[in-house]
């Protein structure tokens, strides 16, 4: 961008921590940000240059918001598709709304992946009594039943141990359209985050290993320690998906590595991803920078990486009686000195209230080796666990 040009205005639909970190990255790249928020108290609203308060279901409000910015992007795939299409007719929206449409519904997502020949866990679609009954006879259990829409952090999912439990599980989820998936006894979970520019330039942050606790991401490790062959397969899969969707922006591909050496895709997220927070410190430019660069029509830039480990800080760590540091916004020094060669930092989203399972912030450690970064991140994490235990309210 030339100095004399008016700054590029990035429009953000969604006002959570992913939009907040995107807005801060945009600012560091010289852009302005305008967020469409449901409340001034939400993470992206208090860092954006401009805030429009409104309801994402209000089509007219979205269209007029779109007119006020140079490009649109999102921090969630759960947006009203028709309204987003109308907004995108005003102002370019990235990734394309069709990608949101696929990723926001597990039946469309599985159908798309299967058509592309991407390996996924065995799946059946349950949209009627008859399909449910049929699956009890032909599907192999244990399995996982997931609502087709609006799931996150394991919400809207039931493990079904045997066929006789399926009917009750489906009722429990509200008899709504679901996917029934084979239960995968994975060796590990990992993700690949692909960034793709408007020119078709494509980069990834490599394979990131992910550890979940209670269906919520706990830690991400970059680079992965998976075998080179399986990492190549994971990268090939993610790049194939991104190219076939003609992606502009970010696409996170969540995957399972099975004990018999297969890579299976679990789900797609066309936006910044929690596992990519490690790139804030481990990479020359983070996932948030890449998104801003892609959306504003620029080249993706440097990709240099150091070994890094990210650990989520959930609300469980901040019971009453612990200093409410989680209300701060941005990077803070954790209460612990880093060992030489290691850097450790904490980042908070500025949420006002800590609740169990709620993502409040994260820690990132970078070092010369993954082992050192892991040890440092774990030590820093234990400081918060200890403080919570002393206050008597930790559920960790
Ligand atoms: N088919 C499966 N087999 C075994 N574990 C699963 C399966 N599907 C999901 N899980 C576990 O549940 C977590 C959350 O499921 P996911 O489908 O990614 O939904 P979301 O992240 O939207 O809540 C996964 O990261 C994984 O740990
Ligand atoms: Mg997931």
TrEMBL record:
Its EC number is 6.3.4.18. Keywords: ATP-binding, Ligase, Nucleotide-binding, Purine biosynthesis. One of its GO terms (molecular function) is ATP binding. Pathway: Purine metabolism; IMP biosynthesis via de novo pathway; 5-amino-1-(5-phospho-D-ribosyl)imidazole-4-carboxylate from 5-amino-1-(5-phospho-D-ribosyl)imidazole (N5-CAIR route): step 1/2. Pfam families: ATP-grasp, PurK_C, RS_preATP-grasp-like. SUPFAM superfamilies: Glutathione synthetase ATP-binding domain-like, PreATP-grasp domain, Rudiment single hybrid motif. GO terms for cellular component: cytosol. It catalyses: 5-amino-1-(5-phospho-beta-D-ribosyl)imidazole + hydrogencarbonate + ATP = 5-carboxyamino-1-(5-phospho-D-ribosyl)imidazole + ADP + phosphate + 2 H(+). Belongs to the PurK/PurT family. PANTHER family: PHOSPHORIBOSYLAMINOIMIDAZOLE CARBOXYLASE (PTHR11609:SF5), PURINE BIOSYNTHESIS PROTEIN 6/7, PUR6/7 (PTHR11609). HAMAP family: PurK. This is N5-carboxyaminoimidazole ribonucleotide synthase.
